[in-house]
Design brief:
The protein is of the alpha/beta class and 322 residues long. The protein contains seven helices and 17 strands. Bound molecules: flavin-adenine dinucleotide and FE2/S2 (inorganic) cluster.
């Protein structure tokens, strides 16, 4: 079994254990969040030995060359000596909370003012770091021209970061952020292309950014947004989205309720309603954000309906138990 050496201590990996699992099993404290190779929070550096290429996926070529890799998806094939990433590998920025308001009982809107420039595309995500090192990813709902970063955070019962954001984080507090990350954003290659966007819960955050970005850039193809929740009380931005639909002939908004009382809205899961309405997606660009099960299921169905793999942007809000 390969051995991982960290801070001059060596630990043997079990079976197909990841480097992160091996080190945490031995009491080494390493930051992590998604545990699925998405957020880059667990990035560390191999100083001897070569990490498998798959564990370096999505990292900048310069970081790959320096031996950086994602510990949560690294099943080592050989002995590795590793060190924590230095600050320059994933630079952090201070950001001040300038506004915080509830959309409803479960979802809060947070606006942050970064201390210096933060260059991003609406729909990408950032990592938010609490003072004690807890890190979680949140999608960016604002446009650069808004002048602030907007996040929509859903309170997960028992959730450490979302509970803290909901109940304790206050206006004028400062957090640390890194990013932006991810490929879920509007691409202006074909202004006539039809777009299908499906999100559940706070999965509306990146889609709100993408829709506004596409319309601001003069997108002419149809833009269909399906937003789903279990109950009407948990849907949000309904008035704003309906107003958008009135203002733009090519934008269509369908709120969906999967629970018993649909209150006159579309009844069923947003992904199922969307994919039954658009059974042929050849030539479409598709955006899927929110609960991992919904996203992964819809991704397969969109592909089977004809959407090209590289035209499907899926952002599952993957959660580990870090
Ligand atoms: C790329 C990306 C983008 C994301 N964007 C957003 C966003 O814009 N808005 C947003 O609200 N969240 C977003 N998330 C999810 C977010 O990063 C956290 O996972 C979420 O806020 C829960 O963190 P927590 O610390 O509160 O919960 P934890 O303390 O990590 O978890 C507590 C318990 O709840 C479970 N759990 C965690 N999340 C969920 C969930 N969604 N549903 C059911 N059970 C869960 C855990 O398994 C654990 O048992 C995103 C995630 C990723 C990977
Ligand atoms: S990439 Fe490893 S914890 Fe997210």
């Amino acid at each position: 079994m390969p051995t991982i050496t960290y801070s001059e201590q060596s630990y043997e990996c079990r079976g197909d254990e990841s480097v992160l699992e091996c080190l945490t099993r031995h009491g080494v404290e390493l930051s992590s969040s998604c545990r699925a190779g998405v957020c880059q929070t667990c990035m560390i550096k191999a100083t001897t030995g070569t990490p498998p290429a798959q564990a370096q996926k999505g990292l900048k070529p310069q970081l790959q060359q320096q031996g950086y890799f994602l510990a949560c998806i690294c099943t080592p094939m050989e002995d590795l000596t590793v060190t924590a990433a230095d600050g320059a590998a994933l630079p952090r920025l201070a950001a001040t909370v300038i506004d915080k308001r509830p959309f409803n009982d479960a979802i809060v809107r947070l606006r942050l003012q970064p201390a210096s420039g933060f260059d991003y595309r609406p729909g990408q995500f950032l990592n938010l770091h609490r003072g004690d090192g807890l890190t979680r990813s949140y999608s960016i709902a604002s446009l650069p021209q808004d002048g602030y970063l907007e996040l929509h955070v859903e309170h997960i019962p028992g959730g450490r970061m979302s509970g803290w954001i909901m109940n304790e984080l206050a206006v004028e507090d400062t957090v640390q952020i890194d990013g932006p990350h991810g490929e879920c954003f509007y691409i202006d290659a074909d202004p006539e292309q039809n777009l299908l966007l499906v999100g559940t819960g706070s999965g509306l955050a990146p889609l709100w950014g993408i829709v506004r970005d596409a319309l601001a850039q003069g997108h002419r193809g149809q833009i269909h947004l399906f937003h789903g929740s279990r109950s009407r009380a948990k849907l949000y931005l309904m008035d704003e989205l309906r107003q958008f639909a009135e203002m733009h002939d090519n934008f269509f908004y369908t709120p969906c309720i999967s629970g018993l009382d649909n209150g006159g809205l579309a009844a069923g899961r947003a992904n199922e309603i969307a994919l039954s309405r658009f059974a042929k997606l050849d030539g479409w660009r598709v955006y899927l954000c929110g609960h991992p099960e919904m996203v992964n299921n819809a991704k397969k169905k969109a592909f089977l309906a004809g959407a090209a793999f590289d035209q499907i942007h899926a952002d599952p809000f993957t959660f580990g138990n870090a």
